[in-house]
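Task: encode each sequence below as structure tokens.

Item 1
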Amino acid sequence: MDNRCHFELNITDNSGTLTATVSETLAEKILCMIAEQIYETVAIKKESLPIAHISRQLAHKIFNIQLQKPTFRMPNQKIGTLVVSSCTETDEGNKKQKMTPFAPTKKQ
């Protein structure tokens, strides 16, 4: 099965919130779920993701996130949306960033 997905996340810090697109691989790492589970839950079963559980898991984690302009645009991606190029958990306690997942979008 060769599914390719991308996900949109709200990234919030002290300066505000922005929406960025994240690849399937990074999303799986951040959300602790594989893309097939997410796609099956949202697209096949028409259920919501257990966002409350995911939010609780991420609430006390701090991330270093690198954003960049996309090299290509997905058909349903808004103009000006940035892409998460890397995301690593950090120990820095002076910054708070949290990610809130949106529903996944299946990529052709």
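Item 2
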Amino acid sequence: MTLLHRPSLFILLFWLRYCQKHWNELKKIADSDGNDEVSLDEWYKYSENIINDQKQFDQYVIDSTSRLVELIDSDNDGKLTLENYKRFFTAYGLGASEEEAIFKKLDTNGDGFVTKDEVLKLVREFYLSQDENSPGNWILGKF
């Protein structure tokens, strides 16, 4: 069995590689004191800057999310199904027992899937909405 036949492992390995590259770029920007580490305060400042700068938000958050959606979408039809979402939760180690209920919150129009554009809207809600009942707050499961 090849790596491509084990989609959860493939997603995880590809995503780890992408995250490592992103982390190296992030560290250059966020490590304001130049000690080769990103402290919690530096992380908060970095995050606030990204959230308040549309160009950076799109470059880092939206781009990362787009790539992740493409990885999760196993049949490349531009739609994430409940099965895709379950695989994502497993690969990410989230292990939610309520994937179906969470997916229903994300599938705001009830058509049985979530498109890439819908995911991007949910991610924007997750980061930017002040409404604690926003469906985007469920993108990574229950907090």
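Check on item 2: Residues 1-5 have pLDDT under 50 and may be disordered. Helices lie at 7-30, 40-51, 54-72, 82-91, 99-106, 116-128.
End of task.
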